[in-house]
Every structure is written in structure tokens, then in C-alpha cells.
Write a structure and sequence with these properties.
Length: 417
Amino acid sequence: MLYDRLKQSVARAARAQSRLAVVFIDLDNFKFINDNLGHDAGDQLLKTVAGRIAGSIRKLDTVARLGGDEFVLILNDLDSEEGLWTLLERIRLKTSQPVLLQEHSCNVSASMGVALYPRDGVDEQTLLRHADVAMYAAKAAGKDNLHFFTGKLDQQSDERFTLEREMRLALEQDGFSVAYQPKFDRHGKMVGVEALARWHHAQLGDIGPDRFIPVAEECGLILPLTMSILRKASMAIARYNRMAASSISLAVNLSPRLFERDHLCRELASALADSGLSPDLLELEITESLLLGDTEHIISQMQELQGWGAQLAMDDFGTGYSSLAYLVRFPLGIIKIDRSLVAGIESNEQQRMVVSAVVTLGRNLGKTVVAEGVETAEQLQLLREMECCQYQGFGLSVPLSEAALHGRLQQEAACCG
Ligand code: C2E
Ligand code: CA
Ligand code: CA
């Protein structure tokens, strides 16, 4: 029905030489409400929102549900872009009012993508596809956003689809590998490693985690990817620990997306099981965006992981809000000071004081403080004077292959006995 309506609208606009807009609307928190308050609440939310959208458009416009929590609008006969803005803003304001569901007042927000006829496409398929691409960009830019289609977005979305397709293949063919970046204690002894995902593509070359992690998060591949990294890295570290009778720890990065799952702890435990690595040697690095989310569910997941024996590390501390309240509220055993803070400590006295204060605070709270991105001997010296516990960075060691890590550990064992 949507398709036919759009076809008619396009034909009419072509005859009248007028403009029309196709708008994709996707609710931002539908899945969360559906999962936590149940399907009835989810249905009621969809009905309420559908009613609000229908109530804020004009008679000549069309609204259709695409399935799930996506809606499409066809806005006909637009006289100007300002007129369109006013209309979209009205829809956004109306839909974003809280909805009462089972006595909970729930906030609703929507991401919207807009494609215009004739500027962004002259046929139905192209207009729908471009509105979808714009909606994706709106979501990626943060929730409650509105984006217009541009040619640049189309190119980015082609790249994204290519990456997604290639990642699925790589996961099937075991194409991801792990680099191990060592962490050292105050005496220069290697005490642990951080596992960093690596992807070498035969045609596209090396693709960095900053490019593929966001795509993996968006398209649901972050769980298999994390499991593959954890499985490989725990095997490698357990093997080494057995051989050298040592107890090197393993840190793995966990995307906030993984905490949306109910049985994260069980899933991680099953990935670790084959290796025989004790969960006591496992450190799970999380970022602050996780702690901004739905806290009760997250705290209980964190406690479960802690009860299992793993330690939780606050990654990139010193970026974003870095609320000190996190350090008390959440069960975090480790704080990793972000490299952007460490970078300035030789030259910037105030920054040095901030880092020193974080080190002291962490220590007094009984946490292990790790300095990231240590690049120079001078930085290392200053951090040692502050009595920071652990150090990681290119100045001490770049991320290593498993073979190079073994070599380095053996060298260390030979020289220090
Ligand atoms: P991160 O967790 O902060 O990891 C540290 C990043 O800083 C690594 O980049 C590392 O190579 C780099 N680095 C380490 N020491 C230095 C230094 O002294 N100077 C500079 N300039 N950089 C240094 P990489 O491997 O490119 O990873 C980037 C980010 O991608 C990571 O940041 C992490 O957030 C994410 N990532 C990597 N592997 C995974 C993974 O398996 N899962 C998830 N969820 N994220 C991952
Ligand atoms: Ca990390
Ligand atoms: Ca970090």
C-alpha cells in the first residue's frame, strides 16, 4: 500500500512540478521498552506513537508502518523547505512526549531521515532507500535526531554495507586476529596484556578497530566478534601461563551493546571455558557510555561478572563526563587513565596535577590505576613518582603478535630470573 501511494504521489508531483518528502522514522528506545515492560506495553507504545504521528500530519499526507518500530511518511505538495521543517518539528515534538505505560512514564524519541523529490530521487525505490540511509545517519549521530539525505551519506552507506558483508565472511572464516599490548608494573615487569582486535583483508588491507567496531555494533556482529577475540586470547594466555608457570592477566574490551543481553556472563564463561584460563585473570574493559545507560540492569550484570571472578576496568577515564560518582557506584576494580590525559603531563602542569589526583584517588579507593598511552621515558618517570600501579603504551611496547609476545616474555624471564 505504501509503495502504491508513493508511486501515485511521485506521479502527481511530476505532473504538478511540486516537491514531496519521504520520511523514515525509527523509535530509539522501542526494543528497551519491549524487552523490559513486555510486548503489550510495546504494542501500546506503537499505537500511541502512530496516533500522534497521524494527528500531526495534514490530510494530504500519508503515514504507514513498515513493521517493527519503523514508520514512513509521505509529505505531499511541499511549498518550501521551511514549511517542511515546521511540519517535521511538529511531528518530532508531538511524538517525543512521554507515554504512560503500566504506570511508568516512558520517554520516547525517534530518529528521522528525509529524502526529497526530485532532489534526492525521482522514483519510489530511490526515495525510500535514501530516506532509510538518512535515518541510519541520524541514528548514528545520536538519538532523537533528524537528517536529510546527501550524496556523501550514500557513499558512506555503501562502504558500511561492504564492511558489514566482509565482516560476516571474515567471522565465518576466522579472519580476525588478536594483538596483545603488554601492561607493566612499577618495576617494569609485564603483568598483563590487553587483547586488541585486528583485521587484515586480502583486498582492502588492514582495517582498524576504530572502523570496524562501530559497524559490528550496528549490525549485530559485536557478540560473535568479541567471543572470537576472547576465545583466541584466552587460549594464548592460558597456554603461556601454563608453560611459564606465570599468571599474566588478560584484558578484553566489551562494547556497551553486549550489556543489552541477559546472559552476558554465561556467554563469556563459555568462551573462556575451553582455554582453562581462570576468570580471576580476566579484566573486562568498559567505557563510560555503558554507565550512562539503564543502571539497575547494568549494575546487576556487572555484579554477576564480578561474582564470577572477573575484574571490571573503566576504560578511557578522563574523557567524556568521567563522573567521580562512577568510581563509587559501580563495581570497578581498575581505572585506565586515557592517553589524552597522559599525553600532556610533561608539558602541562595542570594536566599533571589532574592525573596525579586521579592516581591518588584511585589508590585510596583500593583500585588498580593504569596509565594508557605512555610514549616517553619522561611520562613514565612522572607516573612512577605519582605511584601509578601499571603502565601501557607505545613507549613500553606496541601491540604484539602472539609469537612476539612469547619472545618478549621469554626475554624478560631470562634477564630477570
Ligand atoms: P582502547 O581500548 O583505548 O585501546 C587502546 C588503543 O590505543 C589501541 O588502539 C592501541 O593500539 C592504542 N595505543 C596503545 N598505546 C598507545 C600509545 O602509546 N599511543 C597511541 N597513540 N596509541 C596507543 P587500537 O588497537 O587501534 O584500538 C582502538 C580501539 O578500538 C580500542 O581503544 C577499543 O576501544 C577498540 N577495540 C579494539 N579491540 C576491540 C575489541 O575486541 N572489542 C571492542 N569492543 N573494542 C575493541
Ligand atoms: Ca581498552
Ligand atoms: Ca583505552
